[in-house]
Structure formats: structure tokens, C-alpha cells
Amino acid sequence: MPQQSSHVSHILPSGTILQDNYIIDALLGEGGFGITYSGTCKSSGQPIAIKEYFPAGLVTREYTKGNPLVSHFEGSLEVSFQKGLKRFLNEA
Fold it and tell me: Of 13, 34, 36, 75, which sits most exposed with the smallest number of CB within 10 A?
């Protein structure tokens, strides 16, 4: 498993494989609604950008058996999470 930096645990580490086909190479940046990584498509070898919906203050990342999981908060923050997710998906 790739090493996880202790001071930026919410950032997926380089080498993380998503959906068995996308490899995270490096962090490009992050903002209030998400994190952007450079990556590579395993099947084609093409460089790609990966955008992860990760709204600051509304989610946390946990590692279970080496797998990064995102949890979001319930209650009134759920409304903010869902509104932001809708905007994020519309942008995509």
C-alpha cells in the first residue's frame, strides 16, 4: 500500500488506484469543494486529471483495511453536502 502522509491525511497518496483503472500520480491542488490530482489511466496509459468531491468541513477520510473511505456528516450538514455534490456533478 502507498505511504500516507501524516500531515495531509485527507489527500490520497501517490500510487492509489481508483476503480481498478486510474492511478493517482500527484496532487495538483485543492479548494473548498474538492481535490484535484494528476493521474494515469492504466488501460490506455493516458495522463488524466482526477477531481474528487471532498468539501472542506463536511467530510472526513478514514482508512479501513488500507482502503480510503469518505464519510460525510449527517443532519443539517447533509443538505449542504448534497447541494455541493449537485454543483460538483453539474460542473463535471
Answer: 75
79 within some domain: yes
| Dihedral in degrees, nearest 10, Cα atoms 27, 33, 6, 28 | 10
**Range(s) of the domain holding residue 26:** 17-91
Residue 25 in any domain: the answer is yes
CA distance 4 to 33: 21
Residue 1 located in a structural domain:
no
- Residues 39-92: pLDDT tens digits? 999 999 999 999 999 988 888 887 776 667 777 676 778 888 888 889 988 887
